[in-house]
Design goal:
Elements: E1 13-17, H1 21-32, E2 36-40, H2 46-53, E3 58-60, E4 74-77, H3 82-94, E5 98-101, E6 114-118, E7 121-125, H4 133-148, E8 164-169, H5 180-188, E9 191-194, E10 212-215, H6 227-239, E11 243-248, H7 258-267, E12 271-275, H8 280-287, E13 300-305, H9 306-309, E14 310-311, E15 314-315, H10 317-324, E16 328-333, H11 339-348, E17 356-361, E18 369-374, H12 378-385, E19 391-395, E20 426-427
Parallel strand pairs: 1-2, 1-4, 2-3, 4-5, 8-11, 8-12, 9-10, 9-11, 13-16
Antiparallel strand pairs: 6-7, 14-15, 16-19, 17-18, 17-19, 18-20
Helix pairs in contact: 6-7
């Protein structure tokens, strides 16, 4: 049987006997652990030769001698000659030095585990009886995938020495559109500061048992938790030593005020990371079968917030230029209330009334609905359809009916509504 034991090698000497490909792999791993690596061999693998030339390892260019074991905490025998490796293992046994034997693991006193990490957790796999490294690696890879997906209990049981914040993009809503990195961080979190949009309540399925959810979502015209208060919550929770995930719909840095939260954490000395998410500017039109770019139709993308689409002086020159250019798709997020003013400004500046418009409500949910119209008819069509937030507005030739099928060719996410009847102005998906 084999006892799995975590060994700290930082600053300690490890001897490699042999200079081939196996020794080169071991050397890189040992250096990553901070070990002092000494290699005894007449010839070096190119990787080891490069490490020696850069002073990363010490090379003794000759055959192995017993005195080479002096000062070593761990020895790895990989000469390619079983008899020599067995001799090294026997010499280590007499000196009570742990030794791994690459030729035959059963003749060594230690085995390097097939290892994977997830955050500050390291998992190693070895064969309990005999040696089967390929099997160990296969099991390691399976565990690594589960760890990455947050499918294993990763939440710490002891307080962290210092807190941290991760700004995580939750994507448009479905859990299977979260990145694997996002799922792992959620599984590790002590606190989740969550928006109204995005994965929402469904994310509780992958949270640790002790994780606490703080809802800070905004609704149109109703912001119960101002941005300054959200910033304060992030800093306060992390300063108390907690792992904080700020779960945002879409992508943190695409009209999500993630930059403000990032800056607030840095100013407070809080370690902060950013995990990208699938922005609704792309994902929601896609759910309705609308590509934001299409060869021969649209080659550029302009994304604007409805709050910013109409400033004190009206629509910005950049937005007006995008609306006027038939090769540009304009995406308006959080723009239902601003749509009448934006339409008026566009028409006043010569944008064609027949420019196609699509408004996609509740993208990637069973309540998804798409209203298709034109710029000249948009205000009336949206009013008659009773369009409500959350919705993404697509203005441009890609929104023209018949450009593509009204729904994606790929299978919709579980729970996605199926296509309904079409009219010249409205398509329900």
């Amino acid at each position: 049987m084999t006892l799995l034991l975590g060994v700290a090698l930082e600053g300690r000497t490890v001897l490699l006997v042999g200079g081939g490909e196996v020794a080169a792999r071991r050397a890189r791993r040992l250096l990553d652990e901070g070990a002092r690596v000494r290699v005894v061999t007449p010839r070096l693998d190119p990787v080891l030769a490069d490490l020696a030339a850069r002073g990363r390892i010490r090379w003794i260019p000759r055959a192995y001698r017993r005195r080479d074991l002096r000062g070593a905490w761990l020895v790895h025998a990989a000469t390619g000659h079983p008899a020599v490796d067995r001799q090294v293992a026997a010499d280590c046994e007499r000196r009570r030095i742990l030794c791994t034997n690459a030729s035959q693991a059963g003749h060594g006193t230690a085995r390097l585990a097939a290892q994977t990490t997830a955050g500050d957790v390291a998992v190693g796999v070895v064969s309990a009886v005999g040696a089967d490294p390929r099997r160990s690696m296969a099991v390691r890879d399976g565990i690594s995938l589960l760890l990455a997906e947050g499918a294993l209990p990763l939440q710490p049981r002891r307080p962290a020495s210092s807190g941290s914040v991760a700004l995580v993009g939750g994507g448009p809503g479905p859990l299977d559109l979260l990145t694997v990195r996002a799922r792992r961080l959620l599984a590790e979190a002590d606190v989740v500061v969550a928006d109204r949009l995005g994965p929402g309540e469904a994310v509780a399925k992958i949270l640790g048992a002790r994780a606490r959810i703080i809802p800070v979502g905004k609704q149109p015209g109703h912001h119960p938790v101002p941005q300054a208060e959200i910033n304060r919550i992030l800093v306060e929770e992390a300063s108390a030593g907690r792992r904080v995930v700020r779960l945002k719909g879409g992508d943190p840095f695409v009209l999500g005020r993630g930059g403000e939260e990032y800056t607030a954490c840095l100013a407070a000395g809080i370690a902060v990371d950013v995990v990208p998410g699938i922005t609704s500017a792309i994902a929601v039109p896609q759910a309705a079968g609308i590509p934001v770019t299409q060869r021969g139709t649209a080659t550029a993308l302009h994304v604007v917030s409805g709050h910013d689409a109409l400033g004190p002086l009206g629509a910005s020159p950049a937005t007006l230029a995008a609306l006027a250019d038939p090769a540009v798709t304009t995406i308006v997020l959080m723009g239902v209330a601003a749509l009448p003013g934006l339409v008026g400004a566009a028409l006043e500046n010569g944008v064609p009334t027949e420019r196609p418009v699509a408004v996609v409500e509740n993208g990637h949910t069973p309540q998804q609905r798409t209203t298709r119209t034109t710029l000249g008819e948009a205000e009336r069509a949206v009013r008659e359809a009773g369009v409500r937030s959350p919705a993404v507005i697509v203005i441009g030739e890609v929104a023209r009916e018949g450009l593509l099928l009204p729904v994606p060719l790929t299978a919709p996410a579980a729970g996605t509504a199926t296509p309904g009847p079409t009219t010249p102005r409205e398509l329900i998906t």
